[in-house]
Amino acid sequence: MPKIKLTDSFIRNFSYPGKEHEFYDEIRPGFILRVTKTGHKSFSYRYRFGDKVQRFTIGAFPAISLSKARSIADDLHLKVKQGIDPQDEKLNARTEPKQLTISELSKEYENRHFPKLKKTTQDDYRRRINNVIVPALGDIYVKDLDRITIIDFLEEIAFEHGKDGAPIQSNRVRAVLSSMYSFGVDKAICDFNPVQTVKPIGEEKSRNRVYSKKEIKLLWEHFCFETEPFSSVFKMLLITGQRLRETRRMKWKHIKNDIWIIPEEETKASRTHFVPLSTLALKILEERKEISGDSDFVFESPVNPGEPIYWLQHAAARVRRASKIDDFRIHDLRRTVASFMAEQGVSRTVLGKILNHKGLSGDSSVTAIYDRHEYMDEKKDALDSWANQLERIFTEEKEKN
């Protein structure tokens, strides 16, 4: 085979139909131009690996330019020098299954599994997939969905997105997600079904996780790294100890000076709730005012203007990975606040009033009518004291470092 210095003009102008030609490049040994009998031109790289001579097809000219093809040949030459067989690498890449997101899995599931289901079942599954599963988990890779994210997701449905806290919707969503993964296993899209490792809500063992001072400081740092409004939502949950559902739906019209008034229809306890706001909480609101002051909602959704932020699973997963607190869950923040307040000497009744927890506060339907506006001073003192302790935690840890 002739050896020449390949140039763009030579390749473009060379035309001898009826006979196949191959030219070796003088610049890059092993780099070949092949011209077929019909005039089709392509590049390849010829190399020896072990006791075998291999040929790696690079691509056709002019779709791949000479300079690009020669650069690829340089990379292939380097791989051979490093003990990597480019041809084997190419074959292995072809056999590796494509990594699908949960959104893509849902489309495969709908196209290939739905025809086996009744029409009413199809409609029910499609609604849960499109309205709940995909918005919350859609861009997570199928292989990356872990147990803690599933639990957080299902608990948020059961206890944050449903006013009555009933787990029925959560467990039905779990069943659909599990069915999607079982389909994925059957079709070799994924290796196992992680949803089966999570019991239906109500059957899961109760959790008592409370974060240490060191973990609180670490979490706060990573809350700061998050984009808005996720960053501020996480911070407000840790400062006030309120429920996620009520916090994410906070409206500017419900902030009266240093009091956050949560209307009866927005609370799980079905009663108006008054939350005194510490200086630390007011600082968060001041920063949010510059961003979402024109919206009804303090924590407006970045993708759905005019609506509150909805799912926080992705942000929680980012915090989990970045902070290396592998068991971080949003719902633990409320428990942590309650635990630290109790250590500070806040009475069970006042704590119940702060958390708007009927059982903890000892309220009956009769007493609730008479003391609805009481305990405001006690609640304010407790929340101010907690905010001060938070700031000490941040400062003390910084001084130690």
Explain this structure:
By secondary structure, the chain is α+β, with helices and mostly antiparallel strands. The protein folds into three domains: 3-95, Integrase, DNA-binding domain (Double Stranded RNA Binding Domain, 2-Layer Sandwich); 102-197, Tyrosine recombinase, N-terminal domain (DNA polymerase, domain 1); 213-400, Orthogonal Bundle (hpI Integrase, Chain A), CATH 1.10.443. 51% of the residues lie in helices and 10% in strands. The strands form two sheets. It has a five-stranded mixed sheet, covered by helices on one side. Strand 3 and strand 4 (41-49) form a beta hairpin. Helix 4 (102-113) runs antiparallel to helix 5, helix 5 crosses helix 7 and helix 9 (230-240) runs parallel beside helix 13 (331-343). The protein is elongated and about 100 Å long. The termini are far apart. 28% of the residues are buried. Mean pLDDT is 86; it is low at 364-371.
Instruction: Supply the CATH architecture of the largest domain.
Output: Orthogonal Bundle
- Span between termini: 69 Å
Beta-strand proportion: 5-15%
Tell me the helix content: 40-55%
Class of secondary structure makeup: alpha+beta
Radius of gyration: 31 Å
Low-confidence stretches: 364-371
| Tally of helical segments | 17
Question: What do we call the CATH homologous superfamily of the largest domain?
Answer: Intergrase catalytic core
The biggest sheet, with number of strands, parallel, antiparallel or mixed sense and barrel status, is: 5 strands, mixed
Q: Give the H and E element order.
A: EHEEEEHHHHHHHHHEEEHHHHHHH
Side by side, the strands of the main sheet go 1-2-3-4-5
Query: Any idea of the CATH topology of the largest domain?
Result: hpI Integrase, Chain A
Strand elements, count: 8
Total discrete domains: 3
Q: What general outline do the C-alpha atoms trace?
A: elongated
Q: Determine and state the CATH class of the largest domain.
A: Mainly Alpha
Mean pLDDT: 86
